[in-house]
Each structure stands twice: as C-alpha cells, then as structure tokens.
Amino acid sequence: MILVTGGTGLVGTHILIDLLQKDKKVKAIKRKSSKLSLTKRVFKYYNVEHLFNNIIWIDADILDTSSLEKAMQDIEIVYHSAAIVSYNKKVFTKMYNVNVIGTANVVNVALSSKKVKKLGFISSIATLGHNKGPMNDENNKWQRHKNNSYYSVTKYAAEKEIYRGIQEGLDAVIVNPGIIFGPSSWSRSSTSIFYKVFKGFKFYPVGSSGFVDARDVSRGIVQLTESNISSERYVLIGENLSFKYIFDEIAQAFNKPAPNIKANKLMLNLTWIIAKVVSVITFKPPFITKSTALATSRTQVYDNSKIKSALNFKFTSVKDSIDNTATFLLQEEKLRANS
Predict the structure, then answer these.
(1) pTM for the complete prediction?
(2) Is 287 helix (H, G, I), strand (E, B) or coil?
(3) Alpha-carbon torsion 161, 166, 169, 170, what sign?
C-alpha cells in the first residue's frame, strides 16, 4: 500500500494518476475541508476518471501525528508532496508549520512504522541557493542570504528533516523541481502566471529560470522511489528559459497578445513596494512580493544531467507543458462561465 500526502495538489494529483495507472493500491491524505472536484476534473482531463474511485481518501493532517499514524498504517511507500508555496511574509508561520514541522512528522511516523520501506520527497530548486557559477545543480551549498525567499527557507529546512530521517535509518530520495506547469486552478502557485497573461498582463520580467512539467515531476519521483537509488537528490528541470519566452508561449496558447513591456529590476522593485502598500490598505495578499521580484529578475540556469544519467530520463518540452496546462485552464474557464 502507498500513501500520498498532498493528494489534491498539482504534483500529488499527478502522482496518484501515475500510481493508479500501474494498478497500485493507494491512500491519499486530504484535509477535512479539502474539496475533490478539481482533482476529479484533472483525472477526467487525462481520460482516467475511472481510476479516481480507486483512491482511498484519508482525512488527516500532517501536523497531527495521531491522524498521520492512522493514515500510515499498512503503508510501505510514502510520497510526501504536501506543502504550501508562498512568497508572502504573512504566510511564513503557516508555511513553516506545514513545510517543516509537517515534514518532520512524516519522517518520524515513517521511522516508527515497521512497514514503511521508502519515502519520496518533493522539494524545490529553491533549496539550491544561488550559485555564482554558470550552472546550479545538486552540489550547490545552501547559504543564508537576505534575498532568500520565505518559501526557500522552509523547503531547505524540510530537506534537512529528510536527511535527518536518512541518518536515522529511513530510505529516502529527494527531487528538486523547478517552476512546475500542469493542469490546476488559476490561483495555484505557478499556474497564476497563466492567469496574468490570460487577463492581458502587459509586462514581462527580464530573468530566466528552470521549468518542468508536473507529469515529469511525478514520473521522476515515482521512478526514483521504485528504484534502488537511496539518499540522493535530483534536479528536475525540463528546460532553462527566459520569462519572456514563457509569457509569449502562454499568450500564444490562449490566443492573447503577448506582454510587450520589459519589467526591469528597478520597475519590479517599485512594483512590489507599491503592492505591499496596497496590501496593507486593502488587507489582500500582494500580487507581487520582494522575493518574486528578485526571482524573476535573476538569470538562473539549472543542470538536469544527473537525473538523465541515472534513469535515462526524457523530459516533456516546456511548450507542450504550457499547451497542456492552457487547454485545461480554458476548459475550467468555460465551466466557470456556464455555471
């Protein structure tokens, strides 16, 4: 039996699909307040709706060890994808609790279990820090820096919990995906980029980063967890691309005008400051934060050769990933308009 945390999330949903297509018996953790409608629509989009009812859904909270212990009964493999992704300082405490303390709880319960054989953990390239060299890879050393995002701080601390578990005897493997694209709601993490372009956003950042398809993240962590590989981490990046390219391709997928005003570092800095002021006045989350501004103005390049070598791994093109995501979101928009 396999357990997936964060089963209603972007990556968790794709892990469930991959496992069920392999006829695996799967439990998935969800909060009592979580709705399954979006997850079910993603299953339908991939023409695997018939597999959805094979999931054993467990109402549990990774911050509640007793419910986690019940969920992990008879479990041999754990995929830990539950996390909060945010660059908003106001969310830091909640994000730290879920990303760090929640991961520590998952590790502790897995260690105390007599049946758990391996854990696959979804981390992030945010834990790699900022290498001064030409490429970022698994050998990067984390460094404390004032420009580290709140999200990166929590994911780095979460990785440390995984390594602690490994030192205490837990068999585990880690993946560090870049910016993930895939069918989800308009408001979720990286998918919000699609919403901005769809609504006619006119600006594009000057930086670049690594991007990856959600299907590749799922396929990568499943293959690694099912392999004999242990105590390793792998960068999951399909392509290193500029945000200008990404915004242009999203616009084309939606048949919308592409953003045509370059948002340089100075402009982004002014924008996040204004957004912060507006947030204080309106009590709404800022549409851009200092961390977001910094991240999108930097040029970051990532090396995916380790995963390619280990598994002869082939990545989906980012253009295909964008088209796949946009097609689903257009269906969601049509559904919303007709409701």
Answers:
(1) 0.91
(2) coil
(3) positive
